[in-house]
Amino acid sequence: MPTPRFHPAACLLLLLIAATLGAVHPARAQVRIKDIADVEGVRSNQLVGYGLVVGLNNTGDRLYNAVFTRQSLIGMLERMGVNTRDQIALLNTRDVAAVMVTADLPAFARSGSRIDVTVSALGDATDLTGGTLVVAPLLGADGEVYAVAQGELATGAIAARGAAASVTRGVPTVGRISNGATVERAVPFRLDHASVLHLDLRNPDLTTAHRIAEAINHALGDHLARATDPRTVLLDLGGRDPIDALAHIEDLPIEPDSPAIVVIDESTGTVVMGANVRISTVAIAQGNLTIRVTETPEVAMPAPFTNGQPTVVPRTNIQIDDQHNRKLGILRGSVTLRDLVANLNALGVGPRDLISILQAVKAAGALQADLKVR
Q1: Residue 271 above 90 pLDDT?
Q2: What is the rounded CA–CA span in Å between residue 367 and residue 188?
Q3: How far is CA 319 from CA 78, 290, 291, 314, 325, in A?
């Protein structure tokens, strides 16, 4: 049978059609359910404690300024059998600092597990580098001790000070101790005994929740999952092993949906726009009026052999730039994010000007997205 041959022009036409279809229907990225949702109840808990850091190189708290440091030091020494209350005036060390100790107790942490802790100066200490945290109990929200922290700090900062200058890189008053706390009490939670579970979406969206429920029902059976609200997907295991079911559910690929949102941070000039942002037909003309005022005062000297005094004569120079070379741009139809960026770049619009333009387009009703200004 003879092999069919295609004309080069026909091949080029097929490639153009394929490229056009690919541009109209782009393949959206799929993510795993474990990357966009959490199991309700599987969460970390915050712990906080108070302690003392010792061994500092004359960079700790001033005991006469930080009263709580002095009282904590006296109490610690008395618990060790050292009586210092009769000689309080002689406590003039700067090698001790009072600190707050914080940590996150992860889910399913058992007694004896090790967790990281963060140590932050509480008084007027200038540098915690090289210090050692003395035993500090870490409390939960219920006031119970869940872990005990102790160890050497690592700040990762550099601080040097001389008579007339100082250099500081990083934050020397905050340190971290890797595996610096030992868990003493576990938070009770039995995942293997659950018959009903809830998946909590990190970014609530009703379409995404519905897609998650459909994917789970298609993979593990009908009526296993259903979306109850934009954030929650209910799992009725029906006697299935929770661990085995979650292991299969977490790896299911999902195409998440996202609302059209434009986030503006005016303090930094940052603009972030989602892929679903659309703009209706609108004309944009952007220009700035710049007024520059320059003061160059001059000193007028009196004539020779007179009793006059030198006087300062003001000289003011005012320049006005209204930037007439700005262009008028028209965005037609349902403009996508790529078209919007291309048109605004053609107008020479910077991030600061883009913020004002987006706010004006939203006020005109042409921005089909939620505008959030921070």
Answers
A1: no
A2: 49
A3: 73, 8, 6, 17, 17
* pLDDT tens figures, 307-351: 777 777 777 666 655 555 555 555 555 566 667 767 767 766 777
Q: Where are the alpha helices (DSSP H) in 29-183?
A: 67-79
Q: Which domains does the chain have, with CATH numbers?
A: 45-183 (no CATH), 190-254 (3.30.70), 262-303+311-373 (no CATH)
Angle in degrees, CA 21, 22, 27, rounded to 5: 130
Nearest Cα neighbor of 320 from 286, 287, 355, 354 is: 287
User: Do 63 and 52 form a contact (C-beta atoms < 8 A)?
Assistant: no
Of 198, 200, 154, residue with least CA distance to 180: 154
Q: Is 306 exposed, middle or buried (0-12, 13-18, 19+ CB in 10 A)?
A: exposed
Place of tokens 């299911």: 252
pTM here is: 0.69
Give the C-alpha separation, 134 to 56, whole Å.
13
Q: Does residue 163 sit in helix, strand or coil?
A: coil
Q: pLDDT tens digit string along 187-210?
A: 888 888 888 999 999 999 999 999
Q: What are phi and psi of 27, to 5 degrees?
A: -75, 120
Strands 270-273 and 311-313: unpaired
Among residues 130, 97, 108, 104, the alpha carbon closest in space to that of 118 is found at 104
- Residues 136-152: b if buried by 16+ CB within 10 A, e if exposed: bbbbbeeeeebbbbbbe
Pick the closest to residue 280 from 362, 216, 212, 345 (CA basis): 362
Cα 12 to chain centroid distance, Å, stands at 47
Residues 6+ apart with CB under 8 A from 314: 295, 297
Picking from 202, 225, 221, 223, the residue whose alpha carbon sits closest to that of residue 212 is 225
